[in-house]
Amino acid sequence: MTDEAWSRLRAVCPRCRTALTADDSGVMCGPCGARYPLEGGILRLALGREGAPGYDPHFFRTLERVEGRHFWFVARREVVLDALRRAVPDLDRRALVDIGCGSGGLLQYLRDRGVTVAGACDAYLESLEIVRRRVAVPLALVDEGRLPPLGPGHDLLALFDVLEHLDDDRGMLRFLHSVLAPGGVVVLTVPAHPFLFDDRDELAHHRRRYRRGELREKLEEAGFSVRVLSHFMAPLVPLLLAMRAVSRFLPRSRRHRRDRQQLEFRVVPVINGLGRALLAAERQVLRLGSLPFGSSIIAVATRPGDGPAAPEGLGSGRGGGR
After folding, report:
1. Is 138 a member of any domain?
2. Would you tell me how many other CB atoms lie within 10 Å of the CB of residue 244?
3. Is residue 50 in a domain?
4. Is 212 contained in some domain?
5. pLDDT digits (tens, 9 = 90+) for 181-227
6. CB 3.0 to 4.6 Å from 96: which of 12, 156, 193, 248, for a disulfide?
């Protein structure tokens, strides 16, 4: 990896938030003298977790196996790419940094379809070791419970189903605004509808599910201008409600709940085909405007400045509500 490639990640010292200088073995912070090793293609910028865990790394291997085929992951990646292409007309001149990149399937998909990727970070080494095999970009191990050590000047940042894992989502949004250049873009997805919150969310270490109006409020409070805001995964809402009702009568030990979550990741051909067909139809509707309900929400927002024009389709969701 070249020095130029690492410079696009715009990583800073997690101790004093100043720029880092690279050498063959890692990076160094001049002002505070801290050194951070580069091992196996992963820059180790972690100091130590703060707060409760945000994810169970046990699931990364499962995600690696299924996310290229499972209807939920396939639909999400297509919705994300559609939203970016419609809301960011100069997408080909921007470079994306994925914060909380997970097993890297979505990152790989975007790169393979022409989105320039500047780098990615995650708080779990298990995640980055998988991503390293899939995408040749700068990768940084960062701390859970702390703001990622990224400096200013980014033009495209992504959080795909990450914000709901954070205790301080407002603080994260303010931070993203601060490190984006004027006209910079953030794209994010989150789970929707607080009434769907159940033991699956607890097992996934979700702090919350979002209402659409709530997400708009938090983005605007952080200084963003919202370009796209829509629910998606609408066909899944009745299924999730049914699962929530049934789960009340099932064993609630952590082992039983984890076993049920593993079942959700199984790719059953008939069910998977039906899910992909329903969500492909939904995708056509999303190209015309926003949806008022769905089990997920997608948002694309900009830091005011010389940014992209308002998009057509995938509407701004001014209706508020859930």
Report:
1. yes
2. 15
3. yes
4. yes
5. 999 999 999 999 999 998 888 888 899 999 999 999 999 999 999 99
6. 156
- Tokens 């795909």 correspond to 160
The domain containing residue 289 runs over which residues?
42-302
DSSP 233: -
User: Side by side, which strands form the sheet with 42-44?
Assistant: 20-23, 26-29, 35-39, 42-44, 139-141, 116-122, 95-99, 154-160, 180-191, 296-302, 225-232
**Tokens 């939904």, located at residue:** 282
What is the tally of structural domains in the chain?
1
322: in domain: no
Listed residue (240, 220, 242) closest to 229, CA to CA: 220
Please state, in angstroms and rounded to a whole number, the distance separating the CA atoms of residues 295 and 239. Answer: 10
Structure tokens at 48: 């130590």
Angstrom distance (rounded) from CA 216 to CA 226: 7
Residue 320: predicted pLDDT = 40
CATH number at residue 177: 3.40.50.150
